[in-house]
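Sample 1 of the test manifest.
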Amino acid sequence: AQKITQTQPGMFVQEKEAVTLDCTYDTSDQSYGLFWYKQPSSGEMIFLIYQGSYDEQNATEGRYSLNFQKARKSANLVISASQLGDSAMYFCAMRVLGGYQKVTFGTGTKLQVIP
Amino acid sequence: KAGVTQTPRYLIKTRGQQVTLSCSPISGHRSVSWYQQTPGQGLQFLFEYFSETQRNKGNFPGRFSGRQFSNSRSEMNVSTLELGDSALYLCASSFAAAGSSYNSPLHFGNGTRLTVT
């Protein structure tokens, strides 16, 4: 079974500052993918960034980067230059080989950007 | 390209009734999955369909069922509604091949918010 742990229920960040959202995972599978999703108050889950278990380089997508430390089983999301529109819930998630579309989600971190 | 479309956006039902939710995936996506989101349990996987066949299922009672049509559109049905079924139901699609892959992201719809009174 897979497990995702997000230990920060809520965080505040000043506009234009960088923020790191923590995520640790647990799985016995060797082949897996880690994802981050953003969920605004509207409810839609928006895909942000992906990191594969065999990827040696940390993933980056615009202002988002994923700090992947495989030995520590962590996959932290870094948002640079925070914007007011970044205020939302953020979920770390995992898929494993053989799990098809089943995604295991963490409990989420509510990020609030302060002007 | 249109995203994942879920209808309706909001539903209010009474205990004991049944409900059907609809999901149209992104064009070309053959895999559709459903998730339940509640404040207490978070996001939980319900089931997944690929080419009209259910190929994975979460730990939900038999009252929760689904199906997929030949055009990849999917429906989810909940019978004999309970108060605890009140939740945001999210549908997701991905460009999944016949085999299992773990590296393609799921694309979610806006969800259907179901309230059971």
